[in-house]
Write a structure and sequence with these properties.
Blueprint lengths: L1 H27 L4 H25 L5 H30 L28 H25 L1 H30 L2 H29 L3 H24 L5 H28 L1
Length: 268
């Protein structure tokens, strides 16, 4: 019975939050696509600095070890991004520079000023998967302790993941240019919550000590994507009104995550 409850709770939290985020990002807020990058950056930074890192540092793990994990995580996602960009460039590069008729090719992939950046998707998905795995362990631990606490925890996870997944969907939409593919990828990452729930149910005592490190690795991916991929796209010469709107949407992303995270903590 407990295992069924864990699977139901983790799937509802992991995938339900993605679909709810998609309804908002691609439905209600679709007309504000120009501002969604700002919201995404704010949501990812707030998730990392106001939710994941504080939770990790509240544990018994040493600060030096956690900061070292954060540093290694940032370098890892930088290298992952480099590998993705290299693969993308290698896959589409024509060494001859011309087609069969002898006309030169002009390939522009991703980082042209008029195009969205094509990096960051693997970092987001990896961070999402690690984060979802940690959420699954948390939900499983709560259900093992008390059924009612498990339900509250699953609902809290679902709620605080919505603004964060809105950011993820925007990032993946910009990297792939395809809403459906972005939704499928983030949903698959969200489904890792159920895997975390199963592992948590079997090894809850053993994995408890590793949870802070999962949280720090996930936060490193969100910080990297926000600062290396999203913020640079926002660094354009804009009018005062456009700049204020950009800052406002950045603040909205942060406020959403902090508000929902605060509600989740108070429910505990």
């Amino acid at each position: 019975m407990t295992l069924i409850a864990i699977l139901t709770g983790t799937l509802a939290a992991g995938i339900g939050s993605v679909w709810l985020a998609a309804l908002l990002s691609f439905g209600v807020l679709a007309r504000y696509t120009n501002h969604m990058l700002s919201l995404a950056a704010g949501a990812l930074l707030a998730t990392a600095f106001m939710h994941l890192l504080p939770e990790a540092f509240e544990s018994q793990a040493g600060a030096q070890e956690l900061f070292a994990t954060l540093l290694v995580g940032l370098v890892f996602f930088f290298l992952l991004d480099k590998a993705e960009l290299y693969h993308h460039g290698h896959e589409h590069h024509d060494p001859q520079g011309e087609d069969d008729a002898g006309h030169p090719h002009h390939h522009h992939h991703g980082h042209d000023h008029g195009q969205p950046a094509r990096s960051g998707s693997w970092a987001v998905l990896t961070g999402d998967s690690v984060h979802a795995f940690g959420d699954g362990i948390l939900i499983a631990s709560a259900f093992v302790a008390d059924m009612r606490l498990g339900v509250i925890t699953a609902l809290a996870v679902l709620a605080h993941e919505v603004p964060h997944h809105m950011g993820d969907l925007v990032v993946l939409r910009h990297t792939s240019g395809n809403r459906s593919m972005a939704l499928i990828k983030v949903s698959l990452a969200g489904a890792v919550t159920a895997l975390g729930g199963l592992v948590g149910f079997a090894l809850v005592d053993m994995l408890h000590d590793w949870l802070p490190y999962f949280l720090v690795v996930a936060s490193s991916s969100f910080v990297y994507v926000a600062l290396a991929d999203l913020i640079p796209q926002l660094q354009k010469r804009l009018t005062a009104r456009e700049t204020l709107a950009q800052i406002a949407w950045l603040g909205v992303g942060m406020a959403l995550v902090m508000m929902v995270s605060g509600l989740a903590h108070s429910s505990h």
